[in-house]
Amino acid sequence: MDDLELKHRDHRASKPATGTGHELTPKDGHGIKGAGKSTALPSDRTAWVVFFSLLVDLLAFTVILPLFPSLLEFYASNKKDWLYYSIMQQVNTFREFLGMPDNERFNVVLFGGFIGSLFSFLQFLCCPLIGAMSDVFGRRLPMMLCMMGVLASYVVWAYSWNFTIFVIARIIGGLCKGNVTISTAIITDVTSTKNRGKGMALVGIAYSFGFIIGPVIGAIFAKRSSLESGNPYLLPALFAITLTVADMLFVYFCLKETLPKEKRAKSLLSQFRNASQLLNPVSLLKFDAVEIRSSKEDLNTVRGLGMVYFLFLFFFSGLEFTLTFLTHKNFKYSSMQQGMMFFFIGITMALVQGGYVRRQAPGSEKKTALKGMASIMPAMVIVGLAKTIPTLYMGLALFSFGAATVVPCLTTMISHHGNADQKGKVMGIFRSLGALARAIGPIVSCTVYWSVGPFWCYFVGALLFMIPMRILVKLPAEKK
């Protein structure tokens, strides 16, 4: 999702933005020290360091996705693992309640959905806190600590001979994976409002390529893994560990601190004084942990962007989750064919982010985000009605365009708000709202899908995108 020039780049250092006209102030009332000072930072180089670090991180993170069927088969062989059978019982109860067929692939999707929702919920809890920490200690130290926590989760995964230990590994990873929040704060530190959209687009491109290449590598591991080996996940776990260690070394030697000491929040205690406001969904939607200094209109803009982001990902993640059910039911897609479908979505998103989003003029983010949401509405209807493969992929192309444009544009818009000593907190709250949406969206959408059928699920889902669009339209235009 990054707008940085992939070719013909200029290597000049640029100064971090110290104010945008939309000023938010921490609850403790402390302003920014040294507001009149400016520190030259290698923004172009730093953005690319962030890009490659995120890409490596996501390759390690996504390698597990194709392994879920073999992992579940392995853990099912352990008859004494009470947690596995307890969760599987709940999954079966949920499946029977919805009237879903007892299909092995559907069971795997539901089980994987549970693990994914757990991870997203943990991200909802930790992102605002990690973002606030980065405002106090700078970006580099919290980034390294998060990577150490993620590394620990992969080490536990390598030794997870039963499902309970595996879940512990995912919990550690979910609580520590704050590098994306910090990365967006770093991009905000080293870019101006003029080129920030390009930086945010680069984060999106890293995401797209990570979710393309990582699962392919995981599929190779899945093909070679077998229960006879005694440990079907040891090699992919070691692969993830190796990548994470390499990423840590890369960040340690290549990433310079982007938040000077004179621009940091005064103390961690002041940041966490109202910790409940960083964990309460209602408080997060209202951005209660920060306070507008300039005008009420700016506060309403920040809240509006948070609501748009939450609603968009709530509807989007739910419909995305049910694609597996739809394509298997209507087209008898195998796991390999579904993998190719998501590969197509990822490639399309990367092309849109690299060739379209990064070329958008500063101040056009709102218009581009509206275009993205508008494209998803017909996309969902086409996918829900599709009877042929070409029609399905036509809908998926529109779907991919929307997915590639909305999130980076909204992230760029929210990054224009807040002073340097609270960018991490603002970006952390923003990402926390998205994580909460991804935690509950699939459950709601899955319930609707199996209760009223795919057509009404996708048709009503398409119409619901009008809600975040309506909110976004009413928000003030971004200053160019």
Average residue pLDDT: 83
- The counted number of beta strands is 2
Q: What order do the strands of the largest sheet run in, or round the barrel if closed?
A: 1-2
- Helical percentage: over 70%
Largest sheet: 2 strands, antiparallel
**What fraction of the residues are assigned to beta strands by DSSP?**
under 5%
pLDDT < 50 stretches = 1-42
Distance between the termini: 20 Å
Determine the structural class based on helices, strands and strand pairing. mainly alpha
Number of continuous helical runs: 19
The topology string of helices and strands comes to EHHHHHHHHHHHEHHHHHHHH
The radius of gyration over CA amounts to 22 Å
Principal-axis shape equals globular
Written description of the protein model:
Residues 46-480 form the Major facilitator superfamily (MFS) profile domain. InterPro entries: MFS, MFS_dom, MFS_trans_sf. It comes from Desmophyllum pertusum. Keywords: Membrane, Transmembrane, Transmembrane helix, Transport. It is a single chain. The protein is mostly helical and 480 residues long. 71% of the residues lie in helices and 1% in strands. It is built from 19 helices and 2 strands. The protein has a two-stranded antiparallel ribbon with strand order 1-2. Helix 4 (104-137) packs parallel to helix 6, helix 12 (296-321) packs antiparallel against helix 19 and helix 15 (365-385) packs antiparallel against helix 19 (466-474). The longest helix has 34 residues, at 104-137. The protein is globular. The model is unreliable at 1-42 (pLDDT under 50).
